[in-house]
Design a protein that fits this description.
With 223 residues, the chain is α/β, with parallel strands linked by helices. The chain has one domain (2-222): 3-Layer(aba) Sandwich (Rossmann fold). 54% of the residues lie in helices and 14% in strands. The strands form 2 sheets. The protein has a 5-stranded parallel beta sheet with strand order 2-6-1-7-8, with helices on both faces. It has a 3-stranded antiparallel beta sheet with strand order 3-4-5, covered by helices on one side. α1 (12-23) crosses α9, α2 (30-43) crosses α3 (51-60) and α4 runs parallel beside α8 (170-186). The structure holds cytidine-5'-monophosphate. Residues 8, 30-31, 34-35, 94-95, 98, 129-131, 180, 184 line the site of cytidine-5'-monophosphate (C5P). The site of cytidine-5'-monophosphate (C5P) has 13 residues, from α2, α4 and α8.
Length: 223
């Protein structure tokens, strides 16, 4: 198993999927799980800043997440919400929702079950998130913490948004990644932080392929 953590815009999702394909492993996007609960909260008309109401929606939400690195399925009450969970409303509300301890307990338990199941059936999994090496799978044989400068992350996020047909400027993207990193790193419940034994990889000056090569090499020794 490979635990891949780091802030947004470091190339984590692309790296995690490609690495899983290369290793013939499964893939789990834990950020998508927090985004699905957030979408459910918004659709229920609940205030994302109301922890008790958010916890109630999380308990009732019926969501499913696939573990194929090729096209992971993302469904809320049976509906394909892969595009909706990346929209600006969800991106804005996801940090307060994921700071609710009950939401984290629920999702971490589910993530551990998925990991166990995929490892048993496929032999390996690449899991991406913010707390995989610290909380979800502290025994993972390989933990990687991806970083990149804030400017590089903002410009990547803006390119991604534009490619997905969402309006975006680098300045807006910078404000958004900095705001989310601050909230994710300062929350009380499992904040974004590198595990003590994580390998740090700064992707600012690296192409995706260079990152994949470096990580495959590490995984062949430890993964
Ligand atoms: O990775 P992604 O940008 O899709 O994650 C969305 C949000 O979900 C993060 O900003 C963070 O608030 C939350 N998250 C988390 N723990 C994880 C993965 C994501 O709190 N393991």
């Amino acid at each position: 198993m490979v635990a891949l953590d780091g802030p947004s815009g470091t190339g984590k999702t692309t790296v995690a999927r490609k690495l899983a394909q290369r290793l013939g492993a499964g893939y789990l996007d834990t950020g998508a799980m927090y985004r699905m609960v957030t979408l459910a909260v918004l659709r229920a008309g609940v205030d994302p800043a109301d922890p008790a109401a958010v916890a109630e929606v999380a308990d009732r939400a019926e969501f499913g997440i696939g573990t194929s690195p090729d096209r992971p399925e993302i469904r809320l009450a049976g509906e394909d919400v892969a595009a909706d969970i990346r929209g600006p409303e969800v991106t804005k509300a996801v940090s307060p929702v994921s700071a609710v301890p009950h939401v984290r307990e629920l999702l971490v338990a589910r993530q551990r079950r998925i990991i166990e199941d995929v490892v048993a059936h496929r032999g390996g999994i690449v899991v991406e998130g913010r707390d995989i090496g610290t909380v979800v799978a502290p025994d993972s044989p390989l933990k990687v913490f991806l970083t990149a400068s804030a400017d590089v992350r903002a410009s990547r996020r803006s390119t991604q948004d534009t490619a997905a047909g969402r309006q975006s400027s680098v300045a807006d993207a910078l404000a958004s990644v900095e705001r989310r990193d601050h909230l994710d790193s300062t929350r009380a419940a499992s904040p974004l932080r590198a595990a003590d034994d994580a390998v740090h990889v700064d992707t600012s000056e690296l192409s995706i392929d260079q990152v994949i090569v470096a990580l495959s090499e590490l995984a062949s020794h430890r993964g």
